[in-house]
Amino acid sequence: MKYYAIIVAGGKGNRMNLAVAKQFLELDGKPILMHTLEAFNQCVLNPEIILVLNIHQHLFWEELCIKHDFKIPHQVIKGGQERFDSVRNGLKNIKGKAIVAIHDAVRPLVNAELILQSYQMAEEKGNAIAAIQPVDSVRIKRDGQDSEALSRDELYLIQTPQTFQVEQLRKAYLQPYRNEFTDDASVVERAGFSIHLLPGDRSNIKITYQQDLEMASFLLKKKGF
Amino acid sequence: MKYYAIIVAGGKGNRMNLAVAKQFLELDGKPILMHTLEAFNQCVLNPEIILVLNIHQHLFWEELCIKHDFKIPHQVIKGGQERFDSVRNGLKNIKGKAIVAIHDAVRPLVNAELILQSYQMAEEKGNAIAAIQPVDSVRIKRDGQDSEALSRDELYLIQTPQTFQVEQLRKAYLQPYRNEFTDDASVVERAGFSIHLLPGDRSNIKITYQQDLEMASFLLKKKGF
Predict the structure, then answer these.
(1) Which of A49, A42, A184 is nearest to A113 (CA)?
(2) DSSP state of A47
(3) CB 3.0-4.6 Å disulfide test: which of A23, B70, B173, B206 passes with A9?
(4) For A160-205, how does the pLDDT look when each residue is reduced to its tens digit (9 = 90+)?
(5) What is the distance, to the nearest Å, from the Cα of residue A21 to the centroid of all Cα atoms in its chain?
(6) Phi and psi dihedrals of B35, rounded to 5?
């Protein structure tokens, strides 16, 4: 079996008011994105890495790789308007039978074990979606209605990697884009496949706000890089 | 109008495998709980503070207060079996008309502004529940069924303070305990009141896991205590 990782770098840094996209921010002396690629490179299944990046960032990334002497093999392909389009572009580069992990560029703390489990479960069940349960109570508030408590035990906060047999992705990404496609699981689910959750990792945080970067720096030191 | 804060310290530290309950762990040189009480003490409405604590921790807390020369006025009353019972015990100590903020002992980073807004909104609307929206996609998985995507835009992760006109709490806490009462909003909602959400604060984290304590330490330093 052939294994792939599509690393999706969609962020423009809007939530942090940054000039540079989040995936390029430095974490422990090098861009976040390099940590992410290293994690996949450490997986024993030796996945082929496809990095999907906004075309205007390709040169910048190339320069960063030279500056940091970054040698991990990966292809860089061009991103699309939405995350959905970027993943679809990534898929075009995968031929034949494969297991494909899709991962946020800004989740640099993903560990090799979770990646491995994700590939194994997807190979067996069709897909594997990393998820953790919320610590907080959760409510739902629909337009014009009062909010309503949900049962916390039934809820899952979804992470990446989200890993699939490539056939599921090929079929799912033929669909037209919809607003509610906030991740790959939602796209694949809409194409008619059952979604399988895999216990994620609380340290596998998504760097969205400034404080997340500080948290990541802390967690990274603990991880002993 | 009279303002109260019921600080609920339910934790036994199980999730961190600790001998000491989470609220007593040191954060920046003093127990988490002291930070929490200080935040309420800084509110301009000058709320009266009621600390609900397991009876076996009262003496330990007293000693901590002496050791740290902690002078913020507060009553200490005894906790119950469930968080629900603890809040009910706290309520018994409130007479007459009042606005009551209920707050987790292990959310020490709550800021005075959120507390103030919470009292003001509850006074106007009946209650005010601090909440933030999730960054991650969220799924629901009911027993024996496949998981299903929820619309992230409609979801809220609930924090504390949860603040109420005391009449709502008095009526709500006459109900028998139910498993789905994971917070006060769910208790009050079940008594027939509409729940009003107030924008919370991403820094107002609940210290549940070891990494949260480290995060809190970071955030505290930024806050400039």
Answers:
(1) A42
(2) P
(3) A23
(4) 999 999 999 999 999 999 988 989 999 999 999 999 999 999 999 9
(5) 16
(6) -60, -40
- Determine, for residues A139 and B158 on separate chains, whether the beta-carbon distance falls below 8 Å: yes
- What's the rounded Cα separation, in Å, for the pair B167 and B181? 18
Contact status, residue A194 vs residue A122, Cβ threshold 8 Å: no
Residue corresponding to tokens 């609940």: B206
Bridge partners (DSSP) of residue B155 are A140
Residue B13 has pLDDT above 50, yes or no: no
Tokens of B177: 């305990």
- The rounded distance, in Å, linking the Cα atoms of B29 and B125 is 39
Per the rule left: phi > 0, alpha: psi between -120 and 50, beta: everything else, A199 is beta
Q: Cβ B154–A146 below 8 Å, yes or no?
A: no
Q: Per-domain residue ranges for chain A?
A: 2-223
CA separation for the pair B138, A158 (Å, rounded): 6
CATH number for region B2-223: 3.90.550.10
Q: Look up residue B57 and give its DSSP letter.
A: G
Q: What is the pLDDT of residue A218?
A: 81
Q: Compute the nearest-CA separation of B181 from chain A (Å).
A: 9
User: What are the tens digits of pLDDT across the range A6-49?
Assistant: 999 975 545 555 668 899 999 999 999 999 999 999 999 999 99
Distance CA A109, CA A136 (A): 22
Helix axes B32-41, B112-125, angle to 10 degrees: 60
B161 to chain A, closest Cα gap in Å: 13
DSSP A96: S
Rounded to an integer, what distance in angstroms lies between the CA atom of residue B101 and that of residue B83?
A: 15
Cα angle B166, B169, B170 (rounded to 5 degrees) comes to 85
* ipTM greater than 0.90: no
**A-chain residues near B148 (CB < 8 A):** 189, 195
Please check whether residue A87 is in contact with residue A172, taking contact to mean a CB–CB distance below 8 angstroms: no
Residue B159 has pLDDT above 50, yes or no: yes
> What are the chain A neighbours of B209 within 8 Å (beta carbons)?
135, 202
Which of B135, B141, B154 is nearest residue A206 as measured by Cβ atoms?
B135
3-state helix, strand, coil in chain A (%, to 5): 35, 25, 40
